Every structure is written in C-alpha cells, then in structure tokens.
Amino acid sequence: MKILTTEQSRALDAASIQLQNITSHELMERAAKACSERLLALVPEKDTISIFCGSGNNGGDGLAIARLLLAKGRKIQVFYLATSAQRSTDCEVNWKQLSEIQPGALHTVTALSDLHTPINTEANYAVDALLGTGLSRAPEGLVAETIDFINASYRFVISIDIPSGLFADTSSAQHKSIIRCHLCLSFQFPKLAFLLPQNQAFVPEFELLPIGLSISELNSVSTNLHYLTAGEIAGLLKPRLKFSHKGHYGHALLLAGSKGMSGAAILAAEACLRSGAGLLTLHSVAETIQALQSRLPEAMSAQDVHASYISQVELSEKYDAIAFGPGTGTAAETETVLKKIIQYTGSSLIIDADGLTLLASNKTWLEYLPAATILSPHPGEFERLTEKVQDDFDRLPVIRQFAMRYNCLLLYKGAHTIIAMPDGNLFFNSSGNPALAKGGSGDTLTGILLGLLSRGYTSPQAALIGTFVHGLAADLCAETVSQESVLASDLSKALGAAFRYLEEQKI
Q1: Cα 262 vs. chain centroid, distance in angstroms?
Q2: Is the pTM of this model over 0.90?
Q3: 435 secondary structure, DSSP code
Q4: Around Cβ 212, how many Cβ atoms within 10 Å?
Q5: What span, in angstroms and rounded, lies between the C-alpha atoms of 457 and 459?
Q6: Is 368 exposed, middle or buried (0-12, 13-18, 19+ CB in 10 A)?
Q7: How many CB atoms are located within 10 Å of the residue 93 CB?
Q8: N or C, fewer C-beta in 10 Å, the chain?
Q9: Mean pLDDT to the nearest integer, 389-406
Q10: pLDDT by residue (tens digit) across 435-461?
C-alpha cells in the first residue's frame, strides 16, 4: 500500500472525481458514510456525540457525519467554529443540509465561552473535524483553544482523517495545540505522521476506511513510501513443493550465544527452523550447545573451542545464509570472526544485536558489507551506527541514505518497523503490538529472517515477510493472552499460525 503526501492525496481525489464522473460532494458523502458506520458500531446508543467542525472540507465531513448519524436516530450536538467568514463549497452544502434537517443541533462557536456549557454535559465522545490535512501553520486563537478544550473534556476522541493540529507530512513538534485522539478514522491510506513515534500521543490508533478512489490513478502515483499489508505479504509466499526434500530449503548457519547468553541463540534457532529452513547449524559455546540439544533436537551444532564466547568460524559454501549477533558478546576474538564473515562469505548475511555493536565500533567495515546484507538495529543501535537525530521526520532520510550508501537492507525496529531498501524505498510494517517490547523478540526476528533467506527468498522478500510475520505472530499471541504475558518464546510457537493465516489470504 502506498503512503501518499497531502498533495498527492488531493490530486488522487481530483482524478477520482473526474474519472468516476462524480462530484466532490459525492466523494465526501462516501467518506462520511464510512465514518458514520464506524461510529455507529463504536459509540453506545445512549451516548451523545459532540462533533466539532471547522469551515473547510474536514468540517464538511463532520457536518455530513452528523446528518447521517441523526438519520440513524443518534443523539448529537454539533459545534461549528466561526473562525472564517466563508465555508468551503462542500462544507457549505452540508451545512445547509444539516440546517434543514435539525437546525437545533447546530451551535456556532465564536468564543471559548460558547463551549463551557455544552447542551449535553454527559457526552463522553467527541468527533474532531476541525482542520484536516489543509493545515498550513500551527493552530492559534479560538481553534487552538477549542483543541485544548476537547483534549481536556472528553473521555474518547475520534479524529476524522487526521487529528487537528497535526501535519501529515512534516514535523509538528513545535505545535502547542494538537488533538490527542484515541482513534483516527482516515481514508484509504495512512498518513506518514501516523507511523512515527513522536506522534504517538496524537494518533495512538488509526483505522483506514476505503472510499473508492481510482485504482488506475493510484497505480500511476510514484512514491518511495509504502505500508505493508497482509495481502501484499501473502503474495510473496512460495509453496513447499510436493517432491522437495530438506536440501531444497537451504542450510542456515547461526552464530549466536556466549556464556550466560544461551537464550538468545535458542530463540533465534527455533524461529529459523519454524520459518522454513531445511537445515540449521548453530555455532556457539558448549553451554549453549548443551541447551540446544535438549530444547531443539532438530538443529545441528558446531561447538566453539572457547568456553565463553565465539572465537572462530569455518565458512563453507554449504551455507546458504548466515546470521551473526544474538547474544554473542563483543570479545576481541568474536569481533575478528565477524570481520572474517564480512570479508569472505558468499552467503546471504544478517547482522543483529551484538554484531551491530561490533559494527558501530568498526564503521569502516560497513563499506565492505556483502550486497543486500540485512541489518536489524533498534533505535539505540542505529544511533550508534550513524548519528543522533531528535526528530523522527529528520531520521527518515538518514535511514534511507544509510541503506543506499552501503547497499544493504536496514530494518529500523519499532512499532512500525521501517524496512529500508538499497533503492531508496521505505516500507512501514503494519503488524505487531507492544508485546514485542521484551528481551528476546529481536532474536526471534533474526531467526525468522535467517530461515527465510536459507529457504530461498531474496533479501528484500525475506525482510518484508519476516518483519510482517514476526509482528503477526505477536498479534496472534495477544489474542489469547495479555500483551503483558507474551514471551519471545511464544512468538516461535505462533509462527505456524501466522504463516497459515497468510497462506489462507492467497486462496
């Protein structure tokens, strides 16, 4: 799914109106219908809904939603901010339609005092339709005061298209007044602002509502920003062939674990095998190998001569993919092993965890990474590899340029993990939940990526599938137990259900 800029979205709206031979009002009606249906399901019948409208098209959406809710017998009160002498064309149409149906529901607001004694003081739900994506500067005056009033007064706030006061494509860090919605109902595509950590307080959750925009026109829009969906990932999956054998699905080499850090290696190893690898060899210390034999008998092992950390590696053409880093530590001899792998391996390569720490200490090695190496840093690890950036919007070009400069794939881990491709494309993941915010989750992801690479997927395919499946496994776990209780080891057990879910999307 493409992530469009505000300008591109407007152009798509205009093209859809022309190609489908409809009016802008009819397109607005589609959006209002989708939102009103979601609100009918979300808000209990007994509750009054306060709808706050501005004078632009976002306000027109709010007025149309109010009319549709009234037609369903819902209790509403509409507050229109008279901050402009003129309403947009479609806002004016919906204003007149609502005025004819129930003028008593409309309340014009010219000062903050008009909001201090709303008609229904028991209203717990507010709909924010004040500003939309047409925002060009930080809210001020009555608009800013109303935003602050809504944030302070309502138990649950639903924003239409985008929280008022939030820029869609650039940073809003300097804005003092932004709606802190609980849910944003947006149209067709996510806004870039929804996917960045700095906006969590304003858009903790969002839903995308289809409104029938032109697919042919969408296909012609060029963007390097994408949002992963289950259907797209399902389309990448390869079937296991009837007459295949273990040799057809690759041999993976995992260098992981050290004394006292066996868990990371075991988690990665199990995830690798549950992600399709035909064979897996874990190279680690004796303590880890002993744990592997009782926990995962399906894996093979190579025991290092050193008792505390990995000190050697035998590279072989038999390995289709190599992963280095989970729990390895950063001893000098382990560092030399990583250098050897970077210099001489012909296999697909993943570097994570302690491997990234070693890279950060030897940044000249980045120039010699094998093509399409996958690096999967969390924010702290990436900062050590590059530079400290305060604003998430400023971080995106750093992520993109890193992947392009070193011809690697960068998985910047987070709530919407960013997969940066060497060609400059950025993919934001849509699966996963805060259950992943626990030790061992990243090790499991490394194992998934290793299994997919050895099984025969390209690095871009493995990065996209692995990231999505990792998050989907967490989502499936959270359906049966609390997010608080999900363990990294639960993720591997849920991989089978995650892959099955995606396989069923193809049927």
Answers
A1: 30
A2: yes
A3: G
A4: 13
A5: 6
A6: exposed
A7: 19
A8: C
A9: 97
A10: 999 999 999 999 999 999 999 999 999
